[in-house]
Design goal:
By secondary structure, the protein is an all-alpha fold. It is built from six helices and two strands, in the order αααβααβα. It has a two-stranded parallel ribbon. 16% of the residues are buried.
């Protein structure tokens, strides 16, 4: 048996002829693909093509901007993106502006853990500043990672509750006259 010539299994399979590479090369192809989408302004091309069509708006409940994305946040955002893209393909004007929750206990707990004993020496203003800085960095990383997952959005400029105009609008909604 050891002296037999090996059987060429490739010759027994009817494979289609294609120009697609047989190797994914994700580490090389992904940056190229993202750069190409940015170069041709793909998201805004789609928006312009759908302008004036019936609107489809998905109100996105935001993730906390307290850490990197995980399987839950990725799944949530990808499913919402799938819904928005499918409605766009059905001819709707379906813009997508992501939102992020940049305040609250998850961020405070994360920063509290990071600061440790140093927190007791800090003023409340300094602690809030550390929370804002942490949320801003987490928001940048999450936006980058969602972009890498193919989530298209309005210039990938998210609405966050860290932004002063957004905070003022929210405060205005909560004021009872």
């Amino acid at each position: 048996m050891a002296t037999e010539t090996p059987f060429d299994l490739k010759a027994t399979v009817n494979l289609p002829k294609t120009r697609f590479a047989q190797k994914a090369n994700l580490t090389q192809r992904e940056p190229e693909r993202l750069a190409r989408w940015k170069e041709i302004d793909l998201y805004h091309q789609i928006c312009r093509a759908r302008a004036g069509r019936p609107m489809f708006v998905l109100h996105d409940g935001p993730p906390y901007a307290n850490a990197d994305i995980h399987i839950g946040t990725a799944m949530n955002k990808i499913l919402k993106d799938f819904i928005v893209k499918s409605h766009s393909m059905m001819g709707f004007d379906a813009p997508y502006v992501p939102g992020y929750d940049c305040h609250g206990l998850p961020i405070e707990l994360y920063v509290d853990k990071k600061l440790g004993a140093k927190k007791s020496q800090m003023s409340p203003v300094a602690i809030r500043k550390a929370c804002r800085e942490h949320a801003a960095q987490a928001l940048k990383r999450q936006t980058r990672d969602f972009h890498r997952l193919g989530v298209w959005a309005s210039g990938m400029t998210p609405i966050s509750q860290c932004q002063t105009p957004t905070k003022r609008k929210l405060q205005g909604c909560l004021v009872v006259s």
